[in-house]
Structures are given as C-alpha cells and as structure tokens.
Design brief:
By secondary structure, the chain is α/β, with parallel strands linked by helices. It is built from 12 helices and 22 strands. It has 2 domains: 235 residues, 4-Layer Sandwich (Metallo-beta-lactamase, Chain A), CATH 3.60.15.10; 148 residues, 3-Layer(aba) Sandwich (Rossmann fold). Bound molecules: MU-OXO-diiron.
C-alpha cells in the first residue's frame, strides 16, 4: 500500500499483513493484521509515529522513499511489531531522534541495541511542535504494557493510540466499517487488554478529555467514528456480565460430551445463552471473546491421570490469565476411577473472582441421577443470572439522570 492521507499532511503507512495467521505464537489471526505507522508532515519538522514488524521493513522503507525525511520517531510501545524496525530507521536517517517516555527508553535499551544519544525522553502531557502541527504525548500505561503511550494531534483532533482500540484485521479500507471491525476489535480486546480492564477504563477517561475526530490504532483500520469504539471499549471493560454460559469442553469417550449436550439443552430451556467450544478445534480468540460477556464458565473435562485433560487445563489457565469479569464457574465431566480434577481446575482459576458452583463429576457413563444433577446446575445458573440481571436493572435506575 502507498501512504494514505487521513487528513491534510497526516498519512497512514505501514504494512497490511493479509497472510499472517498466528501472533506471538499464540493468537490466531483469522483475518490477518496490520502494523500501522503514521507520518505527520509539519511546516518545520516531520514525525514518524511507530514502525512495523521488522519482517516487513521493506514496505515501510518503500513508503518513506516517497515522503520527506522524518526528524522524529515517536515510539509508543516497545513490543517489536511496532518498534522492531527502529534500528533500520536509525541507520537510514542518521539525524533521526527517538521520542518516547522513560520506561520505553529503558525497555528499548534492553530489547534493541540503540545508542543512548538518539533519545529524547518526554513527560506525560508534554508537547512537541512540528511547526503548524503539535504532538501531545498522553501516557496510557497498561494498554497493554507498562510503557504504552498515545499521541494526540490537536490541529486535526487525531489520537494515535497504538494497540489501544486496535484490531487484528487486514483490510484495504482506510477507515473502519463498524460492522466489519467489531468482532475483530472485541477479540483483540479479549486477547490483549482484558487482563487490564480497570486501567483500560482509566485510560479511556484520560484520552477522552481531548477532542477526538479520528483514532489511529497500530493494528487495523482508522476510526473516523471514534465514539463507536470508545463505547464498545467501555462496555467490554466495564459492563456487567450477561446471561451467557461459556462452555469449553473436551471429551475422550463421549461421556463428558453427553453431559455437555444435556447441559446445553437444559440451559437453553431456561433462557440461558450457551457459547460452547470443542477444545480440540477451538480458536483461542473466539474463546477469549466469549469470556468478555459470559456470566458463567462451565468447563467440561474428563479426568486424565487424576487431573483435568490438558486441553481443559489450558483453557482454565487462559481464563485465569485473561481475568474476565465472569461471576460464576464450575466443572462437569466424567472420570474412570478417581481424581482431583475439580481441585486442579479451581487452583488453575485462582485469580478469577468467581463463585464456584457445585460441580457435576460422574463415574463412567452419566445416568439418570447425573442428568438430574445437571438440571439442578442449570437451575442454579439461570437463577444466578436472573439475580445479575436484576442488579443491572437496579443499577441502571440509580444511574439514570432525573429528567424534567
Ligand atoms: Fe501490537 Fe503490543 O503490540
């Protein structure tokens, strides 16, 4: 892609990675991704905002052939999909100054061999004039690393937010279509930002003090309707859990699957939405996305060598790491002779602030009494979710402004 103008003398550059299918050797990318950099051409100076994954340096180098030399490189975040081409830029532009915060500088010195004299360290709220354009640096820590910051360009009301508000979506469009981007942005939030929900909310409050007409993230398209993604982020980070059961499961000899099938129907009969995932084929991003709104997690697992199946243990570990706002959790499954599956899953989920509901563990093939136990579990979940909904309703009455 050539440089694309967002507004007068502000360009989206970088690489659209249509073919990448895995990020951090962990996160599936069903729709590819992009590594966005931005170029701001001022009347006196020029700034490049972020770089690209070093494997895609050639794309950025070609785009810079068509632009004036940058005086400043703004580094928002040290993860190398954004900072990784910095050494090549410093070599190509010997006068280039890196502008970043003190934490980012320390991390860059750790990760990349950069000369200490190339840095200009900025403080939160500090500005840098490019002549007719001004860069204002807004520290936004923990979205999703400690050094992350954003840059606001007041003359054009653009917030360059780095990973914050991003999406793993390869698209030829400059601006986001809200219907196209929503699922990818939610997945991205779930995979990257969800463990930092309280910090996300604080940073939304911080950046929205500034008038914003565009948000330029470091992955996915630019938002020319920024309120859409800001409202979505507030919901994901601060909204109450919903009447949804996230049901990841694995079954070796069909007994656990029979239980999962029965519970799925029992919950649906009681008006509870079930999002179920076969862990042998699951896309981890879909599972993470489900956790954003799930009121309850029910993990279905057989017992293997006295503990949970490794795929179920991995799902519990993932949920524990992502720290969703889920309120309830439990385990169902079949075992051969004995085991400590429930205790192991509880230990793997020890960081979740959930109430553990009565598990249903069955020796061998589930029978009538076991299906009745699953019905009681469905009753309990439906009742707990009704309580959640009533609390949401009561809260909405308290928060509603008085009109008239
Ligand atoms: Fe897109 Fe945290 O790097």
């Amino acid at each position: 892609m050539k440089a694309r103008e967002i507004c007068d003398n502000v360009y989206l550059i970088g690489h659209v990675d249509w073919d990448r299918r895995l990020f951090d050797a962990l996160i599936p990318l069903p729709h590819g991704t992009s590594y966005n950099a931005y170029f701001v051409r001022g009347s006196n100076k020029n700034a490049l905002i972020d770089t690209v994954d070093p494997a895609k340096w050639a794309t950025l180098a070609g785009q810079l052939d068509e632009l004036p030399a940058p005086d400043y490189l703004i580094i928002h975040h040290v993860e190398q999909d954004h900072s990784g081409s910095t050494p090549m830029l410093l070599e190509r532009f010997p006068e280039l100054t890196i502008v970043c915060n003190a934490k980012a500088k320390a991390m860059l010195l750790d990760h990349l061999a950069i000369d200490d004299e190339r840095f200009q360290v900025v403080a939160d709220g500090e500005t840098l004039s490019l002549g007719d354009k001004t860069l204002t640096f807004v520290f936004t820590p923990w979205v999703h690393w400690p050094e992350t910051m954003s840059t606001w360009l007041p003359e054009d009301k653009i917030l360059f937010s780095c990973d914050f508000f991003g999406s793993h979506l390869a698209t030829s469009d400059l601006f986001a279509d809200r219907h196209e981007v929503y699922d990818g942005a939610k997945r991205y939030y779930a995979e990257i930002m969800m463990p930092f929900g309280p910090q996300v909310l604080k940073n939304i409050d911080k950046v929205t003090q500034y008038p914003i007409k565009y948000i330029g993230p470091s992955h996915g398209p630019v938002y020319d309707d920024p309120q859409f993604i800001i409202d979505a982020y507030r919901d994901w980070a601060g909204g109450e859990p919903q009447n949804i059961v996230c049901l990841p499961f694995v079954s070796m000899h069909e007994s656990t699957r029979l239980m999962v099938d029965h519970l799925t129907v029992a919950l649906a009969d009681r008006g509870v939405t079930v999002e179920r995932f076969d862990l042998t084929t699951v896309d981890a991003g879909e599972l993470a996305s489900s956790l954003v709104h799930a009121g309850t997690i029910v993990l279905g697992t057989p017992t293997v060598l006295t503990g949970p199946h490794p795929l179920a243990a991995n799902a519990a570990f993932l949920a524990n790491a992502l720290r969703p706002r889920t309120r309830f959790a439990t385990v169902i499954g079949s075992y051969g002779w004995a085991g400590r599956t429930v205790e192991s899953i509880q230990q793997l989920m020890d960081r979740l602030k959930v109430e553990f509901l009565e598990p249903v563990m069955v020796k061998g093939l589930p029978r009538t009494a076991d299906f009745e136990a699953l019905d009681r579990l469905a009753d309990t979940i439906a009742e707990k979710h009704r309580d959640l909904a009533q609390r949401r309703f009561a809260d909405s009455l308290v928060c509603r402004p008085v009109v008239g």
